[in-house]
């Protein structure tokens, strides 16, 4: 739990803790403190080779210890999200393993099984961290393999079991399943065939390894290196692996075996209604991952930004212009590192918004209706447009923010001990992992056009760029202008072939989708700001919120100027507005660094560099 200054009022302390960790109760906050210490003091073990599996399981058990016990391990989404955010700050690779283990593997077993008792004893081993969970969905042979899964699960009417088979090299699954020396249980997505008829994609619980290695019928390739996130990646193939009937995660579907003597065929019933809807239902566990990713992005970004600000405050330059001047005195440095602090605040607000959508505390994110979409380039936006949008925009923001801060921290920013490279690689990897962000933006943009979203209402009074309300108002007008442009270009012309219609417009559709997702975050910023009650906290965070908007507008300037929501004179005034906002943020910097800093962390990246240089001198 974050340690805050005793001078802060109790109400301010409560608001800060709610902002950083969501609606976690005191017991959950205490468990985060214990987890943070366990991860800092514990030996992460080797990255690869002997001992890797045991070390990874120990650290997964640390995560399990911070969560509710037993069957309730996934019952508190706020706590679950906060635990993974804490893990990401300490060890991005562990966070990825935990996200897969809890939200995808255990999430599938919990949400999709109609008979959890039939999943024992593997289910208990996963809950308690005695086994590692794996999620195998991606196949190596084709793009968008989620939409055309090749792995087969053939129903055997003799005993109601299933035969899992990889029909060709292209259907091999890719995932972090190569951990040796430990029990691993996988959730495997496969296309179900009943009497030779394709019934859609379902999930199956499959034992992958025990302490001795792969189980019969499970084949692993040689390790696949991925240094950005060093886990045990392999390709996995299945050779007639028998899967018990109870291990089919049927999600309400039923198979009534036929009778050979009477010549009747097996009867299949699926409440999903169609193979497309079945895939969406099977993939709905991804919502837990997407709801957690904004909090992960926010936590790592807060740490990154605080480190970059501390570095800029303490590092003195020897420029002939002003020898001995701290880096943070330069406007060019302020814009980046204070802007990173502002973006980290925006990500923190987005984490709150995503969690509210996930838990149903807030209905579909305004403005405009959210509906169940038909699948397009990917299934992700069809499963949950708002949560897919949150995932895509937050990981992209965090990747950019971290890369910029790493660069501004010089050589120190490259050091492993400061973790900025790990955070950068983690978020770059999630551009494609968990649902490709660009494809999500394409699908959201396409859906918005096909809905024919109308003109946004005009502002009652003009706003200045130094107001936190200016950016969401501008972005809302821009989203409407992007829709009108695509409609004018024929994107809604149903008489044309869909590929011919959309192929030349995909980049514009992607911009529209990203604008929509960015607006979710912008609206969250003002919503959170409006909900704060402590005057000192409001005074500190208001210029930070406005700085996020002004700098975002500069990044979007080309599109904004081209379509007209931002006038050239307004753009020319942005530089002066950013300077004023940086000055206002600087006045509040001590409180902001305390609020967003990680307890127990060395605040100055340069300190690690200085120790390293001293050891070699």
Question: How would you sum up this structure in a few lines?
Answer:
The chain is of the alpha+beta class and 617 residues long.
Key descriptive features of the protein:
single chain, 617 residues, alpha+beta, 3-stranded antiparallel sheet, 21 helices, disordered C terminus
Question: Describe it for me?
Answer:
There is one protein chain. The protein is of the alpha+beta class and 617 residues long. It has 21 helices and 13 strands. 51% of the residues are buried.
Tally of DSSP helical segments = 21
Q: What's the helical proportion of residues?
A: 40-55%
Number of strands: 13
The largest β sheet comes out as: 8 strands, mixed
Cα distance spanning the termini: 38 Å
Strand content: 5-15%
Task: Report the C-alpha radius of gyration, rounded.
Answer: 25 Å
In round numbers, the mean pLDDT is 88
Low-confidence stretches: 363-372, 602-617
CA-based shape = globular
Q: What class, by secondary structure content?
A: alpha+beta
Q: How do the strands and helices of this protein lay out in sequence?
A:
Blueprint: H1 10-21, H2 26-41, H3 52-65, H4 77-90, H5 92-112, H6 122-127, E1 132-136, E2 152-156, E3 161-165, E4 173-175, E5 184-194, E6 197-210, E7 213-214, E8 218-220, E9 234-238, E10 241-243, E11 248-249, E12 254-256, E13 267-269, H7 275-282, H8 286-314, H9 331-359, H10 380-383, H11 385-408, H12 420-429, H13 437-451, H14 470-488, H15 498-502, H16 506-531, H17 535-555, H18 557-563, H19 568-587, H20 589-596, H21 605-616
Parallel strand pairs: 1-5, 2-5
Antiparallel strand pairs: 2-3, 3-10, 4-9, 5-6, 6-7, 6-11, 8-9, 12-13
Helix pairs in contact: 2-3, 2-4, 4-5, 4-8, 5-8, 8-9, 8-11, 9-11, 9-16, 9-17, 9-19, 11-12, 11-13, 11-16, 13-16, 14-16, 14-17, 16-17, 17-19
